[in-house]
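Design request, tokens follow.
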């Protein structure tokens, strides 16, 4: 009668590596006999596989086939829909194309402040956000956001005060000086300037009086030709200092105006007397005395023919 040996006793009697392939019966190694994760790549035979083929389930069993999808093998990769890149062999790399990310590709809150370039946001990029006409963007501490609000903190209206005209409550506002009286200059005088109550009317006769003219202020260029007439000169107003050299010519002298009293000692020299200028009409009776005539001043050329009568000689 044969004795039985238990499984645990048999395991203790088998040496390591004693069970070789030829010792195993066909189909004797079941799934239960194989430890989980116990099969390594080197444990899998080639099973007739060619280069780059793979193990694939055909619906009934695992078989060796080419590595492609149900619709057929991949022959090339071409990036599109925001991707850039192409390849038909080897390692193909795809990347995001320039401007390849469209609006619908962005997730919520994906574009943060750090992603926006400084100065890149224009007015057209800002939505209306329920803003009414004339409203502005204003920070709301309560909400912690920018909101559309009335421009109540700024200037609501500009009114023209005393001395001004214009003003308004919208758009560009202009204020102007409210000028009164005559004139056309658009300038305003300083408040501390000085003037009296006398005004000069342009072209108005006798509007400029002698009290308005400072001493020595009237120059030769200020006097019009033939403007100084006998009626304009006060008694003894024309002194020697007021007369320019050679200014008093024959036509400037009134008949009988130059009397003996008007001539300085030895004032009438031959150079001052034009040829034939001294006629009887120009000499006051008894005006020329010996002390008034410079020695040798009166020559024959200075005396008109038949102009000196006996009455012209001093006694």
């Amino acid at each position: 009668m044969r004795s039985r040996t238990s499984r645990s006793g048999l395991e203790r009697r088998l040496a390591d590596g004693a069970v070789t392939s030829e010792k195993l019966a066909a189909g004797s190694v079941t799934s239960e006999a194989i430890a989980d994760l116990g099969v390594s790549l080197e444990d899998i035979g080639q099973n007739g596989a060619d280069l780059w083929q793979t193990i694939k389930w055909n619906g009934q069993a695992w078989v060796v086939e080419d590595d492609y999808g149900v619709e057929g093998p991949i022959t090339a990769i071409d990036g599109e829909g925001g991707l850039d890149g192409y390849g038909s062999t080897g390692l193909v790399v795809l990347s995001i194309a320039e401007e390849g990310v469209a609006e619908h590709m962005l997730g919520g809150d994906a574009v943060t402040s750090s992603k926006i370039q400084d100065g890149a946001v224009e007015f057209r990029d800002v939505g209306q956000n329920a803003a009414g006409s004339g409203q502005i963007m204003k920070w709301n501490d309560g909400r912690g956001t920018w909101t559309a609000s009335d421009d109540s903190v700024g200037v609501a209206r500009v009114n023209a005060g005393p001395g001004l005209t214009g003003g308004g409550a919208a758009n560009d506002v202009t204020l102007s000086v409210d000028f009164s009286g005559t004139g056309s200059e658009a300038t305003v005088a300083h408040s501390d300037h000085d003037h009296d109550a006398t005004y000069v009317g342009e072209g108005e006769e006798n509007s400029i009086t002698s009290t308005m003219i400072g001493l020595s202020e009237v120059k030769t260029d200020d006097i019009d030709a033939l403007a100084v007439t006998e009626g304009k000169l006060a008694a003894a107003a024309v002194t020697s200092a007021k007369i320019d050299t050679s200014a008093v010519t024959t036509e400037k002298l009134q008949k009988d105006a130059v009397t003996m009293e008007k001539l300085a000692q030895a004032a009438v020299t031959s150079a001052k007397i034009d040829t034939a200028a001294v006629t009887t009409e120009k000499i006051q009776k008894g005006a020329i005395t010996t002390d008034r005539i410079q020695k040798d001043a009166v020559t024959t050329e200075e005396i008109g023919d038949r102009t000196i009568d006996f009455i012209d000689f001093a006694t």
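Comment from the thread starter after seeing the answer: thanks! The chain has a mean pLDDT of 79.
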